[in-house]
Amino acid sequence: MPEVISSPPLTGPSRPKEKEMSTECPPIQKLPAEGKQAERLASLQEKFKEKFTKTPDFFARAPGRVNLIGEHVDYCGYAVFPMAIEQDILVAVSTNSAGTLRLSNIEDSYPSHSSDINKIEILKERPAWFNYVLCAIKGIAEEGGMEGPLKGLDMMVSGNIPPSSGLSSSSALVCAAALAVSHAHDLLLSKETLAEICASCERHVGTQGGGMDQAISFLGTSGTARVIEFNPLRSTPVTLPPGATFVVANCLAPMNKAATSHYNCRVMECRLACQIMAKKAGLVWKEYRRLGDLQKVLGKSLPEMLTLVSDTFEPRPYSKEEICELLKTTPTALDKTTLSENTRFIQHFKLHDRAQHVFSEAHRVWEFKRICEEESETALADLGRLMQDSHRSTKLLYECSHPKLDALVELSQGISLGARLTGAGWGGCMVALVKEDEVENYKAKLVEEFYSQEPEAQGRDIDTILFSSQPGSGACIYK
To answer: 20 to 30 A from 155, CA-CA: which of 83, 181, 317, 410?
Structure first.
């Protein structure tokens, strides 16, 4: 473990206004002296010196994550169960006196960017990797308690989280950049505050996420997964049962949430289901956007909400016209009150199945936590069963899986205890629960029966697309 130099107290003039900070800031650690991370940091520093002819002042780090269970429920107001992983985003940073943002990537395939740091412009219609850095800068400028203009920054990024794989590479980039900007301006922001700013500002690139990725990137702790709840953001460490190892397998079908409307369509379907159920219950439907908020007001259990879904909706798509009739509104008004920019063209929405998934998946999160804490002899098998149920739900009800993900899950039968897609879906990764003494056999089976026949895997380092992971630590500053 790197030596912790300090974890700054939450006092001082830079405390952001109207933000309650209940925990410590991300830690400041000494640069590791050896190991893979030390090698990566040294390489990043050398590239930075070549590019900017100076040494970086510090480095910011933010990890990716794997969600063990609780998919597509965070933006509905429900708890999730992720853990941080070893793979991360590193950002080398120094200030400049020109008020300029000079941004580059250690990989030449990613174009550099330069602009006035106090006049950030994000073009959502032109997706670019640096947009995630820009939205982080915008978030800190608007919500971080800044009292003057931003300093100019020179930044270089290095990442080993596979992009578009469902391991939250984009959110980790936002988190690392936001931490870098806040540290460069001596802002004393708590982990929770940073996570909330990052969840909010990522919407500048068009993703209507719920906050899980940002929360675990800052709040992750070595050795424990986390149950993360929202509004207010709170995090509970959970020790996984002994003998549990999670193996992550990339199906090699990439998915960029911000580049399509698939993800936001699901968000809107859940929002529409919530509003129709609210109206049926005699509530002011425009005031409700999340199924979790509706459940609290109705005072019902998750199983009771599942029954309510079946009583409210038929298991078929609803046209936009039908939805307007149910809500007594017009398409134009619905576009304004409910739908995001890139979902207003959609004419049919699946309300029954999406809500069924959310309530059942939210219930599985708490069952997963209960099983971990009870430490029964059947704990591993019970967790595996929940993971299988989760994948079935995301595949059939939420329709966010992919044939390659389904193939990996199918291959996992009989040798893993359970497997499911992780992340947004439509490609990316699956996660499998495997007994420790079966991990190598399991990985060998996937290599032989999937990756050896997958053209996209040829010439790739297998350890970057198929790896086991224990829970890792959260974001930090290296000095």
So the answer is: 83
pLDDT of 210 higher than 90: no
The runs of H, that is alpha helices, within 94-234 are 131-143, 169-184, 191-201, 212-219
pLDDT in the model for residue 469:
85
Active site residues: 213
3-state secondary structure of 276: helix
Distance in angstroms (rounded) separating the CA atoms of residues 475 and 177: 11
Contact 157, 29 (CB under 8 A): no
Burial class (CB in 10 A: 0-12, 13-18, 19+), 126: exposed
Grouping H, G, I as helix, E, B as strand and the rest as coil, residue 115 is strand
In order of 15, 218, 454, 464, 470, the CA distances from 459 in angstroms are 49, 34, 11, 12, 26
438 contacts 82 by C-beta, under 8 angstroms: no
**Rg (alpha carbons) of the chain, rounded to whole number:** 22
pLDDT at 222 over 80: yes
2: pLDDT strictly greater than 50: no
Higher pLDDT, 142 or 470: 142
49-78: pLDDT as tens digits: 999 999 999 999 999 999 999 999 999 999
* Contact of 334 with 323, CB cutoff 8 Å: yes
Q: Is the pTM of this model over 0.70?
A: yes
Q: Rounded to an integer, what distance in angstroms lies between the CA atom of residue 21 and that of residue 117?
A: 27
